[in-house]
Structures are given as structure tokens and as C-alpha cells.
Design goal:
The protein is of the alpha+beta class and 306 residues long. The protein has 2 domains: 2-137 and 288-299, ATPase, nucleotide binding domain (Nucleotidyltransferase, domain 5, 2-Layer Sandwich), CATH 3.30.420; 145-281, ATPase, nucleotide binding domain (Nucleotidyltransferase, domain 5). It contains 7 helices and 15 strands. The strands form 2 sheets. A 9-stranded mixed beta sheet has the order 3-2-1-7-9-8-5-6-4, with helices on both faces. Strands 10, 11, 12, 13, 14 and 15 form a 6-stranded mixed beta sheet that branches. Strand 14 (256-259), helix 6 (263-269) and strand 15 (279-281) form a beta-alpha-beta unit. Helix 3 (186-201) packs antiparallel against helix 5 (223-246). Residues 4-138 form the Actin-like protein N-terminal domain. This is Plasmid segregation actin-type ATPase ParM. Pfam families: ALP_N.
Length: 306
């Protein structure tokens, strides 16, 4: 089967799931098997918080282990056999696509096949037949081609956990010379919000609370802290829009397609006085993973394969 996986700094996304990219290792079986991967004689609880930022996601085996967890979740969701063959469809930012393609492919598909592991107590034996890599962001437009209709130029803004990847498309074709990557993702936003709340009202709010308030969802919280979080969300949006303009993109001249985990936050804080040309927000953070899978499905002869 084909399984699309988006390996984010903040979360791992597949067609059906999105879970935090954190992972905790145990030498013995933990208190619960929920989200627990057993591999190589060790236990790993997947989806716990977030791991330290790595300049290179291949520095350790964490993202490989999270990939196995993602595969197991999709196999279970799709009712497939636990002994099967899989082709992974994953992505890389266009700016570093050529540089990282070979090493990331080898990282996700070790030479020793099949791979045996247990997830939530269920044994799996998976042969990773191949790994196909596609450009992040651009792949998501496979699901929403209508956003490019009648638009000669569009800015794609993928607001991820650590980076915000920018790319202009001219006549539906990515302009590689315009690719930029800003270290202004949602992890930085959330950390700065939490620090501001600590300074102003002396409360230590959690990532989950900040995310919920930024998204405009109900949450029991001190009203002063809530106001600070909302204000910081607007300040983050202003900073991001300013950085995009400084990178050479005139947001008042060309429409913007926003996606990624931070798209909902930025979209919610875009004000009329910003004077942006037009903003489309793809609010499902799984859209990249679904795009990877759909492209692979077409290349392999069937969108519905897997």
C-alpha cells in the first residue's frame, strides 16, 4: 500500500492521523501500550510532547521510529494485514530537495528488510518497498488545484513547526529561485507566548493551552493570560507577514495560500488593515501527507491504491 507521511518538527501527519513528533524511550514496558512502539528490544512511547529541534532530522533514529508508528496506525486504520509491503510517500522543502533527497530516502528505507516491530502490542512485519519524495507544500495543491485557477502568480506559505517555507508559483509552476525558509514556525511562536505569559501574570501555561487559545477554541484559563496569548498571536502574524515581505514577496500584490499547523493561527489574525491581496487557508494539517499519497497513487496507476 501507499502511505503518505509528513515528517514535521512539531507533528507527524498521515492521511488519517496527526500526532506530536515527540518520543520517549523506555528500557522496560511502560505503564500503557497506547502509542507504544517496541523495536530492537526497547520501548518507545510516540506522540509525547515534542523532541529537541534537530538541524538534520537524520541525526538520530527518532524520525524513523515515528515513521514505523505512523505506518502501523495507517495499517490499522485501513484494516490491512500486519504483514505487508509499503511504499512511503514523503516530502522535503523545495529549497533543500536535491541536497537531502538521497540521504532521507536511505534513512527511511534501511537495507535490512522486512522490518519487524510491535505497536500497541500488535506485531508487524513490514517490507518498505520504496520511498518516494515530493516537494512539501506544492504537493498539497494536488488536492486543491482550484486555488491556482485564473491566478498567474500565487505565494505558497507552509507554516510548519520550526520553519515557514515560502515559494512562488507562476502559471502553476514552482519558481525554484523564489524558495525561502524562515525560522519563524509555530514552535517559536508558542515558546515566546509562554514566556510572555510568565513575565506578565506569573503563570506557566502549556503548549496545548496556547494552541487552543490561538485557534480561538474554548479553554478554561485566566482571562489576563488569554488576552496576552491572543495579542501575541497577532504580533506573531505581523512579524511573519513582515518577514515574507522582506524576503521579496509582495503580499498586497499576489494571493497567498497558507497551509501547515500554523495556518489557522495566521489566518485568524490577518486583519483588514493588512491589505493583503487574498488569503486562502488550508486548515487541515494533514494536507501535505494526503498530497504526497495522491501523487504517488497517480504515478503508480491508481489514486485509491492503498
Amino acid at each position: 500500500m501507499n502511505i503518505g507521511i509528513d515528517h514535521g518538527y512539531y507533528a507527524i501527519k498521515t492521511r488519517h492521523f496527526s500526532f506530536p513528533a515527540g518520543i520517549s524511550e523506555y528500557s522496560h514496558e511502560p505503564y500503557t501500550l497506547q502509542n507504544t512502539l517496541e523495536y530492537g528490544g526497547k520501548f518507545f512511547v510516540c506522540g509525547t510532547g515534542r523532541q529537541p529541534i534537530l538541524r538534520n532530522k537524520m541525526e538520530n533514529e527518532n524520525y524513523y521510529l515515528l515513521t514505523l508508528a505512523a505506518i502501523a496506525k495507517e495499517i490499522q486504520q485501513r484494516g490491512a494485514k500486519t504483514e505487508c509491503s509499503v511504499t512511503i510517500a514523503a516530502g522535503l522543502p523545495l529549497a533543500g530537495f536535491g541536497r537531502e533527497k538521497k540521504s532521507f530516502r536511505e534513512y527511511l528505507r534501511p537495507s535490512s528488510q522486512p522490518v519487524s516491530f510491535q505497536f500497541e502490542g500488535i506485531p508487524y512485519k513490514v517490507t518498505i518497498e520504496d520511498v518516494k519524495l515530493f516537494p512539501q507544500g506544492y504537493s498539497a495543491l494536488m488536492i486543491h488545484p482550484e486555488l491556482l485557477q485564473n491566478e498567474p502568480s500565487v505565494l505558497l506559505m507552509d507554516i510548519g513547526g520550526w520553519t515557514v517555507d515560502l515559494m512562488r508559483l507562476d502559471n502553476n509552476v514552482p519558481n525554484a529561485a523564489t524558495c525561502r525558509s524562515l525560522e519563524l514556525g509555530m514552535i517559536r511562536c508558542i515558546d515566546e507566548v509562554k514566556e510572555q505569559v510568565r513575565r506578565d501574570v506569573g503563570l506557566s501555561v502549556t503548549d496545548a493551552q496556547v494552541e487552543r487559545v490561538l485557534a480561538g477554541k474554548p479553554c478554561s484559563m485566566d482571562e489576563d493570560a488569554r488576552g496576552i496569548i491572543q495579542k501575541q498571536g497577532r504580533l506573531y502574524t505581523e512579524r511573519l507577514l513582515s518577514a515574507a515581505m522582506e524576503a521579496g514577496f509582495d503580499l498586497k500584490a499576489i494571493p497567498v495560500v497558507m497551509l501547515g499547523g500554523g495556518a489557522a493561527v495566521v489566518k485568524r489574525n490577518v486583519a483588514p488593515q493588512d491589505g493583503l491581496c487574498r488569503v486562502f487557508a488550508l486548515l487541515d494539517d494533514r494536507v501535505n501527507a494526503e498530497g504526497f499519497e495522491r501523487i504517488l497513487g497517480r504515478l503508480s496507476g491508481g489514486v485509491g491504491k492503498g
